Amino acid sequence: MIHIDTWLYGELARYGGDKNERVFANPQVELPDGSCLADLLKALGMDTNERGITFINGNLSAMPGLQPDLNHPLKDGDRVAFFHLRSMWPFQYRHGVTMIPEMQQAMLQSEDLGLHHAYDAEEEGQG
Amino acid sequence: MYLVRVNMTDRTYQVTDIPEAYRHLAGRGFTSSVVAAEVPPLCHPLGPNNKLVFAPGFVTGTSAPTSARCSVGGKSPLTGGIKEANAGSSWAADLAVMQIGGLIIEGKPSKKDEYWGIHITWDGKPKVEFFDATQYTGKQLSQVFPAIYEKFGERISVCSVGAVAELGYSNAGVVFNDQEKRPTRYAGRGGLGSVMASKGLKFVVLDRAGAPGVEIADKALFEEGRKKMIDALRSHAITKPKGGLNTYGTAVLINIMNEAGGLPTRNFSSGRFEGAPKIAGEAIFETVKTRKGKEIYNHACSPGCIIQCSNTYYDENGEEIASCVEYESDWALGANCGIDNLDDVARMVKLCNEYGLDTIETGTTIAVAMEAGVIPFGDSKGAINLIHEMGKGTPLGRILGAGTATTGRVYGVTRVPVVKGQSMPAYEPRAVKGIGITYATTTMGADHTAGYTIAPEILGVMGKQDPLSPEGKAALSRAFQATTAFIDSTGHCLFIAFAILDIASGYQGMIDEVNGVLGTHWTADDVLKHGAQILKTERKFNEAAGIGKEADRMPEFMKTEPLPPHNQVFDVPDEALDSVFSEL
After folding, report:
1. Which of B255, B270, B273 to mutate against chain A (most A CBs within 10 Å)?
2. Which UniProt keyword terms apply here (chain B) (predicted)?
3. In terms of CA atoms, which chain A residue is nearest residue B283?
4. Which H/E stretch holds residue B320?
5. Which residue of B has its CA nearest to A25?
6. What are the residue ranges spanned by the domains of chain B?
7. What is the pLDDT of residues B180-222, one digit of tens each?
8. Residues of A whose CB is below 8 A from B277
9. Burial class (CB in 10 A: 0-12, 13-18, 19+), B295
10. Residue B411 has pLDDT above 70, yes or no
11. Helix H segments across B429-556?
């Protein structure tokens, strides 16, 4: 088994054990060896579309509408943090931060090199 | 538009048309151009030859949304270089409605300890009257503002400085009224409050009654632009009603920066603070909900704002402690001092507002004092006491009021997070290297508002450079700084950048609004050129003031001390930093 130090912020805190919590929660989640990020979401009972900005050990792994981290393997002791969709992180304040390799590749391949706040045009348009 | 010059040496004033050279300048472009043209670069910032310049933006005072910003400029007592700081307030809109494109305060009275206010009304053109304001000095600002409203009526707007400006502190801001007539909206950075006080000026009171409003050259184009801007702000997830900023305020960034390992903690000794979730925007929103018994969304700092990101924080009895607890203040007085008591952070914000202190410089200074052992990290009561020392002007308070760099020097501290004498805001450059390049190179000293990302077209400036290489980051920083200088000239709040970056029609809307007001035909390229010209003007002033490229450097400890949790140093080479301005 591996042990994941999980941080859930804002509205997502309700997936941490107390369904009324809305500030933050820090559940310690046990997963079988070889689990990936999608397995952690499943264990929490949280749909991947409910999360926005995500970090694995302080490395950016997802942004709203851009989730290259679902198959990212987790290891014992990892710290994983999930943010709600009302969070934001303007480009100038994340320009040059560390990312997981999958995210770095996804950003470089995106048309705008990851300048935007969200990556799902349809959802953004609907507001 | 009019130019109003007020001479505090003999208390006279002149009203003229805006000179041709300044006709297509506003906001930061106006203040920086006047300072560069009229202030001797080597003058003492608190002497008679410095000038304090106020200018509304191009669209301030119109119905363009989120546009009531006023720029304040002068030579900074904190950096020794040129300074522009801006704030949102009805004061900015009133200045523009009275068709005052620029207000220049010059000279200095020969008598010390005598303070004056100016009351500007509309009498066919702006009319200035002086009143004795000495009785309002040395007091907390929340005691003073109601007296001014009582004296001049409820319709006025008020600009002032606090007691610490009267003491000449390098971290004293210029304060404006908010929508509730409270003294809470600060053009905070760089000590411009002390420049104002050095001229014996305590208040600038505006009464717009009868004023004609802003002239708009092409109303149809302006309306088109305004509508595009409104649509962008109302639909974007971050700026829309009940969106990120309206719900959680700017402090929504606390948890994000903390998880990224880029939240400067305990005087920039770590990038992660274990108490961050307790002081974050989510905690502010939920605490207020519990204490007031309902969800309270944020309010506007100034008329006509759609984003409405300002919070009010309440104590356990539901009584107001402070408005507003911004990300930067929350971090500076919280995480950076190792303090996770949100009530005490709010109390410190309130005290800074009362005494007239810049919250960022105050928090970073207290953290350096903590590093020196004056009080321990995490001691919120001790930190509150240090702010009182500053407000009361004790010898210790005066040292702290001189800012972070001076405090570090006095106590022999080597970890002093400043560039050009101004302390760094809440983004650790060892973790976020792009912002580090902007901190190092901006004309303002370390400044988080100097390089916003406003349009994807900016990527064109990089050519084939790798955006993750130091050279690529430098190219982007240069473009960010130029376009930000333009937004700072429009009168729009920088937060429109969030919406117009993602919604292209919003960006065009901003340009249409400005063209509509001025009758110009500026393009997106012209925006970049206009901003670049402002930067060149500022840079030239700084060089003549002795602040050249050697000052475009990070403090040494950031190049040698790895920052946990990522254990990185700031490793952008000097050549990349130099390229920001050499290739402008």
Report:
1. B255
2. 4Fe-4S, Iron, Iron-sulfur, Metal-binding, Oxidoreductase
3. A23
4. strand B320-322
5. B277
6. 2-206, 241-416, 433-494+522-582
7. 999 999 999 999 999 999 999 999 999 999 999 999 999 999 9
8. 7, 9, 23-24
9. exposed
10. yes
11. 433-441, 470-490, 496-502, 504-518, 524-544
User: Do residue A95 and residue B502 have CB atoms under 8 angstroms apart?
Assistant: no
Class of domain A2-120: alpha beta
pLDDT tens-place string over residues B317-338: 999 999 999 999 999 999 999 9
The shares of helix, strand and coil residues in chain A, as percent rounded to the nearest 5, are 30, 25, 50
Contact flag A96-B468 (C-beta cutoff 8 Å): yes
Kindly provide the ipTM of the predicted complex, given to two decimals: 0.95
- Smallest CA-to-CA distance from A70 within A115, A109, A103, A45 is with A103
Q: How far is A15 from chain B (nearest CA, A)?
A: 16
For B2-206, CATH number?
3.60.9.10
Q: Does A110 touch chain B (CB under 8 A)?
A: no
B237: contact with A, CB 8 A cutoff:
yes
User: What single-letter amino acid sits at B247?
Assistant: T
Proportion of chain B in helix, strand, coil states, percent, rounded to 5: 45, 15, 40
Nearest-neighbour CA in chain B from A34: distance (Å): 24
- Cβ atoms of B272 and B265 within 8 Å: the answer is yes
Domain B241-416 is found in CATH 2.40.10.480 = no
Regarding the domain delimited by B433-494+522-582, which CATH topology (the fold level of the hierarchy) does it fall under?
1.10.599
The overall pTM is greater than 0.80: yes
Give the pLDDT mean for B224-244.
96
Domain boundaries, chain A: 2-120
In this prediction, residue A112 carries a pLDDT of 80
The predicted-structure confidence for B510-566, as pLDDT tens digits, reads as follows 999 999 999 999 999 999 999 999 999 999 999 999 999 999 999 999 999 999 999
